[in-house]
């Protein structure tokens, strides 16, 4: 039987890779060079986990101590360099890879918090922080308004759902590689469907109209 | 007699609430949705304290471990959602709530540093960092030039005054709930008066003129 | 004979001063006031080291505990205030001081990691993070696109070279005040030459053209 640790490491590495690709794609769209592509891929893919490790006081973040975590960002930058010269739909791809990272990181972040002895509420919060932290760093670093705050989009809710389900499964003793993949699938489907169907939640003030950014962006599906 | 710990917890929670309202107001002004409002309220109100706790190595920040700290941001987002649909003067309100948070956090941040055994200079610096850190995170996240650096405004000096007075009172053995409220009042009055009267300090280079943003913004009072 | 600790402290303080001047110069260019100048100088000069100390779990960052680290930012803000009123070429000066900070911080950051027992790869990564972290914070705080990601420039590679050489010298037992200055000279020369000659590396996607920002910025030398 496969141990939880191995499952966690693999989910984490795949999540790191997904986020790294989203970072390299943003670097490409912003006309950064190949070194900037590696750096932005590293910041987005390793930043969320670094915040998590610093918060739970787990010693130096794995990103610094375990060199295997450097492979995904390098791989992502190379992949984007060689394969995406003819790609037009950067935004769609960026959103899909970002959703993959989000789905996996809300699980691994929550689990790390639970196994280090935090209470359920704290574990959910830390899972969400891990999941949205890397993307937030990516958007702040590249001087963009963070996706996290895009009112035409749902980004944090899927991470809350994933962190909540992970905590529930853990306390019921049902967490395994299989149920982890199931939760990741739910989070990914929620995030991507919300994006394609342009689901949205009410604005920060009751009765305010959405505007400025175009009605089509709200009612219609996006590519 | 009320213990220092209880006074500190309440001052901290009220400060968290003030900063949270400023976050939700900025979210409203930037047309974020209700989830973004809760998140920005959380970042501004809990971010400064989280930086402080990570710096003094106090274990996981209270924001993650004590669920009571989640109530102010949720309350702030709800309040802004239901009460501010007809409000025009977001900027004034935002500044007032932000000043309230600043006044309380420079006290609680300094005290936490003093009680964890740091020297007076370090305690003042950490108090100021706690007080201005949340607002800085808020403005960076929302992709604005931080209020902290607005040359038409005085923002960091009141926090230094508050942290300095707190350190002085502590070392004289005069710190209590009463003197804490007094210091908070001084910091709040200094910050708000500087803002309404448009007090300012010299620019970063001697002999340079203020310009571009309008002379009226410097000499006249603002609403 | 001078101990490594003394060499390190001095290299660190000089690096802090260089970065602080770059912060005050950016504050001047962005029309911040004198308080904002001190704060931005502090953020850029002490931020990279604070990130390093938090990551290696070295207790509160020296910036908070050792008051001597407050002298360089104060000195830098005063210097810029009194001396630069007639200076036109802010960008050139900013780049030179920034390069000086980069050259010294990639050495001191790497050494701190090595002496706290990290492996060579982790030490190089932490050295680079220390060197580029302060400047990244400076540019994010001032709401600019980070120099680190400017595709017309080479910024991270010199830091990698410096961190790599430092690690090599350390493991060969050849690290001393003399070789440290040699490495700093190489990093500084690499960074400044790359900037003056407008060296660049390929963009993030193969076959893409540099454009928009002007061909002259790429092929010609800058002042």
From TrEMBL, chains A, B, C:
The chain crosses the membrane at residues 7-28, 34-55, 67-84, 90-111, 168-190. It is a multi-pass membrane protein. Pfam families: Gly_transporter. Residues 9-83, 96-170 form the Glycine transporter domain. Its main location: membrane. InterPro entries: Gly_transporter (IPR005115). It is found in: Cell membrane. The keyword Cell membrane applies. The keyword Transmembrane helix applies. Belongs to the UPF0126 family. This is Trimeric intracellular cation channel family protein.
